[in-house]
Amino acid sequence: MTPVQIVLSIIYFLVALVLIAIVMLQSGKSAGLSGAIAGGADTFLSKNKAKTADAKLARLTKWVAIGFMVLTVIISIVAG
User: Fold this and answer.
1) pTM of the full predicted structure?
2) In this structure, what is the dihedral angle of CA atoms 22, 25, 30, 36, given to the nearest 10 degrees?
3) Which of 41, 49, 61, 66 is deepest in the core (most CB within 10 A)?
């Protein structure tokens, strides 16, 4: 393994751990009693969803997953 491959592998491993942690921190779609009874769509809190911590985690998950996929492509190019 070249030093570049080692560094990319370490970064890849760290990004994978961050992605796992972010996904584990998110709550389920029907978490709580309001999701079971009201469906979650009619609540006041669902209207301000873009400002909640779950929405920020969802956005962060998207960007970390994109980074993970880009690193996958880069590692496959470097290794090939």
Assistant:
1) 0.71
2) 180
3) 61
